[in-house]
Write a structure and sequence with these properties.
By secondary structure, the protein is of the alpha+beta class. It has four helices and eight strands.
Length: about 200
């Protein structure tokens, strides 16, 4: 993996997570059969933002191990989904799919499916058990794969509150949120390339 040079990370999660994920189109079709949510868990304490660059580099390293043709993080298929909310941001319609938190190597917690004039976007909130083992906490992160680039926008040391996620998704769709790390497979490259690294916000 290149990060303005080569960075080697010894930890890889690929051997732990092998479940394939649906495409954004398949996820969109799935929403037609998803029931409405009855309630959400009450999270009183606001989780702390995780700013460790090494944690994001571990995620990027795992994504690289999935190969060039699998640009979105793999996760274990949830046992339950429900439709939490449908809301509008400008010309975008956002469908929020909620899955109760389950522990595992990498599990799905929220899907934000965005209908735009161009094509459906999918922003995921994933729980990653290995990151917690390495860096502490129960770590959740926000990620989007779009136009052959994968952007990591946030990480939390505990279960995130929905209102905070909704604000972040709004900022992303309004082009106001900056990715903490962005990676892509560039033409001719045999390794994932880090094209953005927010050194002001990461440590």
């Amino acid at each position: 993996m290149h990060f303005f040079g080569r960075i080697l990370i010894s930890v890889s999660l690929a051997c732990w997570i092998s479940t394939s994920i649906p495409t954004a189109k398949a996820a969109e079709d799935m929403t037609a059969t998803v029931a409405n949510c009855s309630k959400l868990p009450k999270i009183k304490k606001k989780p702390r933002a995780v700013r460790q660059g090494a944690a994001f580099m571990t995620l990027a390293n795992d994504l690289e191990s999935q190969g060039r043709n699998n640009l979105q993080p793999n996760y274990e298929e949830p046992h339950f989904r429900c439709m939490l909310e449908i809301f509008e941001i400008g010309d975008n319609t956002v469908k929020t799919i909620y899955s109760p938190w389950t522990k595992g190597m990498q599990t799905l917690h929220y899907q934000f499916l965005v209908d735009s004039e161009q094509k459906t976007r999918e922003i995921l909130v994933l729980y990653n058990g290995m990151i917690g083992l390495l860096y502490g906490g129960f770590n959740f992160y926000v990620v989007e794969t779009r136009d052959e680039k994968t952007s990591y926008y946030a990480m939390y040391n505990n279960q995130p509150r929905y209102e905070d996620l909704r604000k972040l998704i709004t900022s992303i769709l309004q082009n106001k949120a900056e990715a903490l790390i962005r990676v892509e497979w560039q033409k001719g490259s045999e390794e994932l390339v880090i094209t953005e690294y927010n050194s002001k916000r990461l440590k």
